[in-house]
């Protein structure tokens, strides 16, 4: 009888590895990275009985601050409940909301060529005031609440609208700053004006500023710690059953989502 089949402990160390990739938030036809879309894989990875460490690879240019916060809080909640250590790794880019997720690690790593940081807030849009005027189109908007139509792209911007937008962005930026200061307490090594300016750095400079702890990849770091017999069990995001079944009939949504995601990565030259 082969008793190894009934041995309750694995012969080799195991580390679950979760891949979090893409724009954070909902994207047309592609789902995007939200708490709902990654909750299952996070739960599964942290549920592993024979692992005391979970690795998380982040490859994201950012996106929704709310979803970034929700996913980050979920990771920390699972780590505390399951008593597991979390190692996070930046891949191509962990910027803005992607860096928010990277900060969920007890130890934070990046490749020397990874882009990290972008601790800031951005709002972008278009104005069509002159266009509808040339086309002879009359814009009709009725509201209750003087700020209900704030920043309507078919109306001129007002100083009051811009002031309110500045206040919202300021509050979100401060929440981001507070999160980074909390997660990287005692490790940040640069002036606030530089670290929280919204710019990005390559991994080596990010390490010097205290944004990451060490340079390294999941393969090299994990095998150095757990040995060559380590087994890495990978968990990745999946498209929903509906997205897979719709196929080409869903092409327009997929294309729109892909373009939006491409533009987000393109901001960092990727």
Description:
With 270 residues, the protein is α/β, with parallel strands linked by helices. It has two domains: 9-118 and 199-266, 2-enoyl-CoA Hydratase, Chain A, domain 1; 122-184. The protein is built from ten helices and eight strands. Strands 1, 2, 3, 4, 5, 6, 7 and 8 form an eight-stranded mixed sheet that branches. Helix 1 (35-46) runs parallel beside helix 2.
List the helices and strands and how they pair.
Blueprint: E1 14-21, H1 35-46, E2 53-60, H2 65-82, E3 85-95, H3 97-102, E4 107-110, E5 115-117, H4 129-134, H5 159-183, H6 192-195, E6 200-202, H7 203-208, E7 214-215, H8 218-226, E8 231-236, H9 241-246, H10 251-266
Parallel strand pairs: 1-2, 1-8, 2-3, 3-4, 3-5, 4-7
Antiparallel strand pairs: 5-6
Helix pairs in contact: 1-2
The CATH architecture name of the largest domain reads Alpha-Beta Complex
Poorly predicted runs: 241-256
Please indicate the percent range of residues in DSSP E strands (runs of 2 or more).
15-25%
Top-tier CATH class of the largest domain? Alpha Beta
Question: In angstroms, what is the radius of gyration?
Answer: 22 Å
What's the CATH topology name of the largest domain? Answer: 2-enoyl-CoA Hydratase, Chain A, domain 1
Oligomer: single chain
